[in-house]
């Protein structure tokens, strides 16, 4: 009788083990499905409808919660969560080693199973939230397509005309800015006002060009550990789980800061692609009534077009205007030198190089895993986009 009970116990134990293995396999499959299926099923016109009508409603919940706090909840959770997670992992590993040392393999496997089950369930929930608040937004029509910024190859004269427009806009905006005692331009207001104005102009650009962005107000947050964050060479991060736009505020670079703020706000308002977010950010800046925003936007376009026009001129044996040697460029060069001096602080030493390299590779891998084949190269808006914008919306108007 005892032998029969023992056999039944062994049989029941095997069945339970098989069921646990099957549950882990099922949860792993659900995790993969939660990450891949939403983007496979929701694309084209369905994705556009989702981004314009459903996403703003879903994202309103985390936005409402995070807006109650002045500080970055993302930063808080990352710092506290990382320390807590490290302690839990150490405790779990030590506990597992002790159990194995006691030769209770079955108990060790059971503990491993329970932890793995919890991790997979959390992963499934996180994947669904990520897809709902960011992943599906990769499938919407690009800004380039929605604004019809396609066209045949433009001539050297047309590129030169667009470059002249960008230069004039940059210099005119720069003349209206205040300077410090080193002659370096500075932003016109504090961070909170910059965020407020960035929200307004991004929404205005979305409405004017029918880009279908969320009308929710985005309370972008300054990161307290910005100085340390600068070593990663990342200026801003969108957290789709908390609906936060996190901004590095260690150095408010007049040449790029307004674009960075508008870029992260564009993510929170519904555009996942880095190319789209930067396109919206630059167009928002040049259409802003703020001179500091205009300066950053036109500076971005000028930099994107200058080398192209220079290469075009060399290839065709043409003469181009030497903007860099013009007297007005001296005030821009002062801003560039100040920005370069700041960057040099974080570009020396093997540790700094490792952090920057690791950050670049991690960000590149993240973007590629989300269907952005060019990785971090997608941050650079194709220069022909601005040329087409100039001729379609500025020159023709």
Report on the structure:
- With about 400 residues, the protein is an all-alpha fold.
- The radius of gyration is 26 Å and the shape is elongated.
- The protein is about 70% helix and about 5% strand.
- A three-stranded mixed beta sheet has the order 1-3-2, sandwiched between helices.
- β2 (about 235-240) and β3 form a beta hairpin.
- The longest helix has about 40 residues, at about 1-40.
- The protein has helices at about 1-40, 45-65, 75-100, 105-135, 145, 155-175, 190-210, 225-230, 255-270, 275-285, 290-315, 330-345, 350-370, 385-395; strands at about 220, 235-240, 245.
- The chain contains 14 helices and three strands.
Reported for the largest beta sheet, the result is:
3 strands, mixed
Question: Can you write the helix and strand succession as a string?
Answer: HHHHHHHEHEEHHHHHH
Q: Order of strands across the biggest sheet?
A: 1-3-2
Distance between the termini: 95 Å
Strand content: under 5%
- Tell me roughly what share of residues is in helical segments: 55-70%
Quaternary arrangement of the chains shown? single chain
Anisotropy-based shape: elongated
């Amino acid at each position: 009788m005892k032998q029969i009970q023992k056999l039944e116990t062994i049989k029941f134990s095997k069945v339970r083990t098989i069921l646990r293995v099957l549950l882990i396999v099922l949860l792993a499959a659900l995790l993969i499905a939660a990450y891949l299926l939403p983007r496979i099923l929701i694309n084209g016109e369905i994705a556009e409808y989702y981004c314009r009508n459903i996403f703003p409603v879903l994202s309103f919940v985390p936005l409402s919660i995070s807006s109650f706090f002045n500080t970055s909840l993302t930063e808080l959770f990352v710092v506290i969560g990382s320390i807590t997670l490290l302690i839990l992992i150490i405790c779990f590993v030590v506990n597992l080693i002790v159990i194995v040392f006691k030769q209770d393999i079955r108990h060790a496997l059971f503990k491993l199973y329970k932890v793995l089950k919890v991790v997979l369930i959390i992963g499934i929930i996180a994947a669904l939230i990520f897809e709902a608040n960011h992943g599906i937004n990769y499938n919407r029509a690009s800004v380039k397509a929605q604004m019809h910024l396609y066209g045949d190859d433009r001539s050297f004269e047309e590129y030169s005309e667009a470059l002249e427009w960008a230069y004039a806009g940059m210099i005119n905006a720069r003349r209206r800015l205040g300077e410090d005692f080193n002659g370096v331009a500075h932003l016109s207001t504090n961070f909170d006002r910059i965020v407020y104005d960035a929200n307004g102009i991004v929404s205005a650009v979305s409405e004017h060009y029918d880009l279908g962005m969320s009308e929710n107000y985005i309370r972008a947050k300054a990161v307290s550990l910005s100085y340390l964050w600068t070593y990663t060479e990342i200026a801003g991060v969108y957290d789709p789980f908390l609906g936060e736009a996190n901004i590095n505020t260690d150095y408010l670079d007049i040449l790029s800061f307004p674009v960075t703020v508008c870029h992260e706000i564009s993510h929170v308002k519904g555009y996942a692609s880095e190319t789209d977010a930067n396109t919206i950010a630059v167009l928002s800046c040049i259409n802003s009534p703020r001179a500091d925003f205009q300066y950053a936007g036109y500076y971005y376009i000028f930099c994107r077009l200058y080398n192209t026009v220079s290469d075009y001129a060399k290839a065709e044996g043409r003469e181009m205007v030497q903007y860099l040697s013009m007297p007005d460029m001296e005030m821009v060069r002062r801003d560039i030198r100040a920005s370069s001096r700041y960057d040099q602080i974080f570009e020396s030493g093997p540790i700094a190089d490792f952090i920057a390299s690791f950050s670049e590779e991690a960000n590149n891998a993240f973007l590629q895993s989300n269907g952005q084949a060019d990785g971090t190269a997608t941050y650079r808006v194709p220069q022909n986009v601005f040329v087409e914008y100039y001729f379609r919306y500025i020159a023709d108007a």
